């Protein structure tokens, strides 16, 4: 780290604070401790769907990380002076180095106290929980979530505000604007802090409290769920239900062990890949059918009843039992349906439900039957925060394997997994022997089934992807498109267009408007096709195609979603000319 402090990096060795401001620092930091470094803006430091995500090598460029971190402090609501923040992340490559940089810049920007996860590790939900329980002024997360890690892979930095949730667009826009004009940042010369020991430390002018990453979060879960009910189901049923949790070498390993082994009393065979690795063992820490293949294979081979995985930073989840994949859209609808009877936190009632626009309407049907408000927001967890803060939202989810509630302001993979264990325990009280498939079938019989699938075309040329979106926009605007019949290519099935538009959202709490949030077509029979460009990739563009069809026909419930959705997928591919624009004839991932 010494080269970081080397004078060759710094043009100035004098603070640029007005004397009036500087006097307040003098007691703790001497003038020569704060260095103002001249820098130049880097283009493209625009936070995406959830923070800034780029290749590690980009973050390692001279001043790159420093510029962005300075922009965060400069953009903090009410300034950074005297504030307390939480700092931690998924432990990916470059996290310790980034944590040291952030401590130095925090010190120079007047931050008073940093609550830091041991070894710079904290899951994304654990950061949100700490911000809320310690009432801090926000937090900085070192994560690129489900993106791969390692020296040639991705890193990310995200800022969360005092409610524990990802900064709203108004704040991320401010951060971006600062990065576009930044000329200097402030830093204090400090040696590396030993991140491995818990306790309280004075690090130059700031107090740093290094905490065990797991305990505060596990305590919160114990207040939400009935662990005794789950234990009772797991240990008194004959034969004993089998369970497998896979952390995909991400940050949830220690959290998973604390729950499955320490709290629920299961043995070592119930967890795998539970040691966080900086490169996630060289794989993609994304819990879906493609990237969680080790889990899927073992669940099928050993016919494990309950399998679950979480992503790199612990905010995503996948629920998968033998022969039973739960789509995230169904998962949140089923959690909402069972919440009051299976999860003590919701015993006194649910305030409202919500989903992101591309997520299937399964949760809307539950909301309707319970007489609850339901909201459709753009993709991005940050859009749920205002509704939760206003007391209008309890449970929400996204098709991108994100599920959560108002216990924190991030989606929460481990919470969703324990929610499903609670549902199975409660279902077994009603009907012994109930497995994931029984819960799914029971739900579909009651509410109908929303068939849903997403096709991802990763790292395509940005130009081609943008051109495809423009072509769709023009098609939507052409006269006669609404009302036209779109035909599948390999069958006689056709769909009449009822509505086609670019999704925009007006936040019901603060009135802020977010436009261009995804191109959707709704058909007369209730089916939908949606196209979006991902906001979480680190290079090129990722095209996401979402398709949904609703059925109340019981004879279809057991059908493979890919079979039932084939005509819609054909319509989407031919209408968008996706293959022509992206030069891809098949997706990288199908969920
Ligand atoms: C982030 C956001 C989610 C969003 C997801 C997918 O998840 O927190 O709200 O649904 O990205 O975004 P996109 O489709 O733009 O790639 P994570 O788990 O990556 O933080």
From TrEMBL:
<protein>
    <recommendedName>
        <fullName>phosphoglucomutase (alpha-D-glucose-1,6-bisphosphate-dependent)</fullName>
        <ecNumber>5.4.2.2</ecNumber>
    </recommendedName>
</protein>
<feature type="domain" description="Alpha-D-phosphohexomutase alpha/beta/alpha">
    <location>
        <begin position="217"/>
        <end position="320"/>
    </location>
</feature>
<dbReference type="InterPro" id="IPR045244">
    <property type="entry name" value="PGM"/>
</dbReference>
<keyword id="KW-0119">Carbohydrate metabolism</keyword>
<dbReference type="GO" id="GO:0005829">
    <property type="term" value="C:cytosol"/>
</dbReference>
<dbReference type="InterPro" id="IPR016055">
    <property type="entry name" value="A-D-PHexomutase_a/b/a-I/II/III"/>
</dbReference>
<dbReference type="InterPro" id="IPR005841">
    <property type="entry name" value="Alpha-D-phosphohexomutase_SF"/>
</dbReference>
<keyword id="KW-0479">Metal-binding</keyword>
<comment type="similarity">
    <text>Belongs to the phosphohexose mutase family.</text>
</comment>
<feature type="domain" description="Alpha-D-phosphohexomutase alpha/beta/alpha">
    <location>
        <begin position="331"/>
        <end position="447"/>
    </location>
</feature>
<dbReference type="InterPro" id="IPR016066">
    <property type="entry name" value="A-D-PHexomutase_CS"/>
</dbReference>
<dbReference type="InterPro" id="IPR005846">
    <property type="entry name" value="A-D-PHexomutase_a/b/a-III"/>
</dbReference>
<dbReference type="InterPro" id="IPR005845">
    <property type="entry name" value="A-D-PHexomutase_a/b/a-II"/>
</dbReference>
<dbReference type="Pfam" id="PF02879">
    <property type="entry name" value="PGM_PMM_II"/>
</dbReference>
<dbReference type="GO" id="GO:0000287">
    <property type="term" value="F:magnesium ion binding"/>
</dbReference>
<dbReference type="Pfam" id="PF24947">
    <property type="entry name" value="PGM1_C_vert_fung"/>
</dbReference>
<dbReference type="Pfam" id="PF02880">
    <property type="entry name" value="PGM_PMM_III"/>
</dbReference>
<keyword id="KW-0597">Phosphoprotein</keyword>
<dbReference type="GO" id="GO:0006006">
    <property type="term" value="P:glucose metabolic process"/>
</dbReference>
<keyword id="KW-0413">Isomerase</keyword>
<keyword id="KW-0313">Glucose metabolism</keyword>
<dbReference type="InterPro" id="IPR036900">
    <property type="entry name" value="A-D-PHexomutase_C_sf"/>
</dbReference>
<dbReference type="GO" id="GO:0004614">
    <property type="term" value="F:phosphoglucomutase activity"/>
</dbReference>
<dbReference type="InterPro" id="IPR005844">
    <property type="entry name" value="A-D-PHexomutase_a/b/a-I"/>
</dbReference>
<keyword id="KW-0460">Magnesium</keyword>
<dbReference type="Pfam" id="PF02878">
    <property type="entry name" value="PGM_PMM_I"/>
</dbReference>
<feature type="domain" description="Alpha-D-phosphohexomutase alpha/beta/alpha">
    <location>
        <begin position="45"/>
        <end position="185"/>
    </location>
</feature>
């Amino acid at each position: 780290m010494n080269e970081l402090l080397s004078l060759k990096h710094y043009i100035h060795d004098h603070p640029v604070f007005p004397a009036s401001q500087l006097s307040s620092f003098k007691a703790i930091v001497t003038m020569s401790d704060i260095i103002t470094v001249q820098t130049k803006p880097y283009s493209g430091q625009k936070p995406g769907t959830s923070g800034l995500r780029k290749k590690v090598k980009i973050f390692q460029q001279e001043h790159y990380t420093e510029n962005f971190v300075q922009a965060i402090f400069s953009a903090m609501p009410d300034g950074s002076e005297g504030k307390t923040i939480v700092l931690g992340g998924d432990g990916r490559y470059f996290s310790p180095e980034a944590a040291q940089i952030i401590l130095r810049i925090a010190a120079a920007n007047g931050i008073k106290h940093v609550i830091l996860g041991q070894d710079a590790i904290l899951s994304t939900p654990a950061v949100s929980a700490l911000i809320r329980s310690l009432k801090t002024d926000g937090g900085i997360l070192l994560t690129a979530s489900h993106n791969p890690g390692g020296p040639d892979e991705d890193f990310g930095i995200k800022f969360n505000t005092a409610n524990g949730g990802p900064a709203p667009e108004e704040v991320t826009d401010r951060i971006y604007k600062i990065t576009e004009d930044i000329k200097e940042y402030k830093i204090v010369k400090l040696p590396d802090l030993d991140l491995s020991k818990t306790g309280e430390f004075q690090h130059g002018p700031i107090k740093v409290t290094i905490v065990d990453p797991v305990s505060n979060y596990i305590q919160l879960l114990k207040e939400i769920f009935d662990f005794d009910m789950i234990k009772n189901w797991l240990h008194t049923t004959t034969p004993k239900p089998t369970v497998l949790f896979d952390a995909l070498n991400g940050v949830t390993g220690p959290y998973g062990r604390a729950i499955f082994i320490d709290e629920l009393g299961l043995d070592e065979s119930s967890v795998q890949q539970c040691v966080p690795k900086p490169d996630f063992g060289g794989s993609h820490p994304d819990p879906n059918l493609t990237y969680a293949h080790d889990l899927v294979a073992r669940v099928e081979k050993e016919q494990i009843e309950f399998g679950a995985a979480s992503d790199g930073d612990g905010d995503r989840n996948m629920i998968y039992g033998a022969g039973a994949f739960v789509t995230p859209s169904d998962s949140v609808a089923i959690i909402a349906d069972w919440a009051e009877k299976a999860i003590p936190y919701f015993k006194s009632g649910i305030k409202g439900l919500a989903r992101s626009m591309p997520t299937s309407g399964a949760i809307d049907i539950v909301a309707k039957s319970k007489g609850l408000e339901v909201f459709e927001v753009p993709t991005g967890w940050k859009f749920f925060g205002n509704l939760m803060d206003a007391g209008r939202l309890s449970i929400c989810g996204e098709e991108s394997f994100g599920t959560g509630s108002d216990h924190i302001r991030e989606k929460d993979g481990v919470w969703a997994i324990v929610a499903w264990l609670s549902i199975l325990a409660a279902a077994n009280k009603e009907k012994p022997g109930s497995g994931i498939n029984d819960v799914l079938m029971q739900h579909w019989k009651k509410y109908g089934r929303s068939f849903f699938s997403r096709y991802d075309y990763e790292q395509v040329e940005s130009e081609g992807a943008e051109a495809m979106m423009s072509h769709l926009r023009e098609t939507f605007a052409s006269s006669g498109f609404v009302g036209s019949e779109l035909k599948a290519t390999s069958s006689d099935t056709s769909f009449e267009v009822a509505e086609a538009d670019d999704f925009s959202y007006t936040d019901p709490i603060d009135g802020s408007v977010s436009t261009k949030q995804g191109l959707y077509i709704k058909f007369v029979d209730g089916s939908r096709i949606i196209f979006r460009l991902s906001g979480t990739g680190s290079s090129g563009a990722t095209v996401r195609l979402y398709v949904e069809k609703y059925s109340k026909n019981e004879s279809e419930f057991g059908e493979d979603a890919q079979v039932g959705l084939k005509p819609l997928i054909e319509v989407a591919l031919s209408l968008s000319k996706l293959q022509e624009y992206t030069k891809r004839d098949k997706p990288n991932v199908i969920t």
